[in-house]
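Incident log, structure service

09:12 report received: a user says their structure output differs between two submissions of the same chain.
09:20 pulled the input from the user's history:
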Amino acid sequence: MLKAFFNIGFTAATPPGKLRGRSRADYIARRNFYNLTADYNYFSYTLNNKKVVRNKDAEQYFTRGGTSGGLFDMNGALTEEQVSEMKEQLKTTRSIIWHGVISFDSDTSKGFETQENAVKFLNQTFGAFLDRTPLNRKNICLYASLHKDTDHRHIHFAFFEKEPKRKYDNEIDYTRKGTISQKAIDNYLVSANMHLSEHGDEYYTARDRALDRLNELRRKGCRRTKKDVRTEIMELAASLPEKGRLQYRAKNMEEYRERIDRVADLLIQSDPASRENHVAMLKEFARIQEEVKTLAQDNRLGYVNGLRMNEQELWAAMQGEQKMPMKYVDFEQIDYFQRLKDDYKARVGNVILGMCKDLRRDKYFDRRRAYYKVCSRKMKARNCRRRRENLLTQAVRALAFVDREERANYMKTVQQIEREQEMERYGVQRSV
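09:34 re-ran on a clean worker, output below:
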């Protein structure tokens, strides 16, 4: 069942050249409405919670007179200072202003009673949408408001470029093409509806369970895995470059990704729990893919691109009535599921690369331990050599001392004998 309906349009700084007369004046008035220079503009509508014939300005349009919970972006509620700064930018910007609405079915609307839920939804889905457009997400100023005045909760949004970044004929300018590609909208509709689907939660739960088991195997260490898997991981670790980021999506990992995927598959198949979790994740993935395929084939994923819709037209679209020229998702150009696959492969690949990092770290410490062991042996041998040298030196000194003592005693004895002999001769001579 369709969970979210999408409508987006835009107004450029200057009207198209083909517009004349009343059409041109209406376009200029619409631009003034969205850039806040008109008394009746976008904020006055979105911030006003009551049905009115005419809004004071665009701020009132967005905030419904201050009763809608206020403005927010993908990161949370906007402060008064941020809103004031944004107003000044809007009044002078030459950027295209994109604007639209995301409306939810009655069941899904029950989950959008607070601004926090709307912020979370935009944070988890809208950034990927902007990335699929030619726009630079970091150069986008986005503001939105949640409206709860109908059974179908809906988020009004608008965004524009902060600074000119596009290059045209050697000149830097704002993006000149306002039409959003069908592929970007198709994939956003799919991702938004899958984000709101109960099966989407089941897929992410199964994916996280599979990754948790692989990370558990990593914490146990490569040496605890089976021999053939351990050998493959060790060989992969040895072949990886010594410098650069060891991350699956890193540019220097491009030539290793196929091998990383093969090692990851070996690791998953070698562990019964990992294999079971992996199969469960694949089943949930197939479930949401089939759900989207059915919705697309039945023309249930529709949107209006380039035209602003009023409340009646929006209500009719959510009821399946076609009062405006509707477009429908082309399942053949949906790459949302391929992105899910690539995301899962990258996460698993990073687990394998993490094990390679652990191996390298262990080898480093092994080398350090071996180095210190060698150093210890060298120091021990040097100390032994010094002790031997000291012992020999002391022995030589002792022998030299004994030799000197013996020599002195010998000289002393000879002199004493000579004196005794001299005394004996002298005594004989006296007696004569």
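09:41 both user submissions now match this output. Likely a transient worker issue. Closing.
09:42 reviewer note: The chain has 13 helices and ten strands. The chain has two domains: 4-179, 200-300+328-363.
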